[in-house]
Amino acid sequence: MGTKTPERLSFHEIKEALSNTSRPQIPLRFIGRDVAMLRSRHDVFGRIIKKGTPYIVEDIRLGYVMCGQMRIVINLVEHVFTKGTMAYVGTGSIIELKEMSDDFDLCGMMLAPTRLRETAGPGIPSWVTTGIQSFVVKGNEADLRYVSDFMDLLWKLFNRTDMPDKAFNGLIYSLLWYYDDIKTRNDVTGNAKTTRTGELFDRFLCLVNNHCRHERAIAFYADKMCITPRYLGAAVKAASGITAKQWIDRAVTANAKVMMKYGSGQVADVAYGLGFPNVSFFCKFFKRATGLTPMEYRNNVDSQQE
Predict the structure, then answer these.
(1) How far, in Å, CA of 124 to CA of 75, rounded?
(2) Strands 70-74 and 77-81, sheet pairing
(3) Cα-flanking dihedrals φ and ψ of residue 20, to 5°?
């Protein structure tokens, strides 16, 4: 195996992917190692993210769609982004692009946890600091206009050589709380997510995304949520139409794909890293989930990158 791109999709990898671009100006700006702004995607997505390939997001992503459509899986849940969609993708999230229209365009930011701590310390919304989290909401015209105004001002400050750092952090803080307001309003007016069943499903999925590499037993998650495995299973099936075990298996498979794609170690390292008792058990699990053996999957990924 040759040297491969690191497992996580970080600032460094994005800079590297854009370093040889032939475009005279890419609407993407970096400040040190902890902040970046994307004013418009143009050819950025095509250079960084390949369809059907899972990536682990290293830093926080926050943005909104300006036009077009994209189908993407974020932490096991598939979403369709259209104009006005606003999204938050937290550190450690796994994303996989499925489809994207030619006219898809967005505006967004990448924020490292260090920047968030400088921005407001413990005073930021809880969803920013609660493990692997993500949410997608549809803002109204006013929301889109206000978020656009926030981004416009941040972009102007971004391009100043004497950018006032505290003012910049203050705007990020305000933007996060405006996203929280939009999220809260969507939760209140939504459907299943406001019910007890929907809330349990959201908590379960968050726990699965955070612990699936080491815990595959439904009882573990039920214990974390202080309910019985039977009740958890019924709630998850009612909320999603998919069993709790299927969700756990999906999360394990997504992590296995990432580890197989980027890891340079043996299949055994992946198997034991995901808590499987032996390689044979892992190979059978992976083949059942993907239709390929681990090595067939890795070889397919290698051939696509050549």
Answers:
(1) 22
(2) antiparallel
(3) -105, 20
The token pair that represents 288 in the structure block: 């059942």
Strand partners, 172: none
**CA–CA distance, 231 with 236 (Å, rounded to integer):** 9
Helix axes of 279-290 and 244-262: crossing angle, nearest 10 degrees: 100
Half-sphere exposure of 186 toward its Cβ, with a 13 Å CA cutoff? 16
pTM equals 0.76
Residue 91 in tokens: 């550190």
HSE value, Cβ hemisphere, 13 Å, CA-based, for 67: 6
- For residue 158, which of 244, 34, 271 has the smallest C-alpha distance? 34
Strand ranges, E, within 47-176: 54-57, 60-67, 70-74, 77-81, 85-89, 94-100, 105-111, 134-138
Sole residue written with tokens 């939760």 = 187
Q: Around Cβ 245, how many Cβ atoms within 10 Å?
A: 13
Place of tokens 């190692």: 33
Contact 65, 85 (CB under 8 A): yes
- 7-46 confidence digits (pLDDT tens): 456 666 666 665 555 544 556 777 666 888 888 765 566 6
DSSP for residue 50: -
- Region of 104 (left: φ > 0; alpha: ψ -120 to 50; beta: rest) is beta
* DSSP assigned state of 121: G
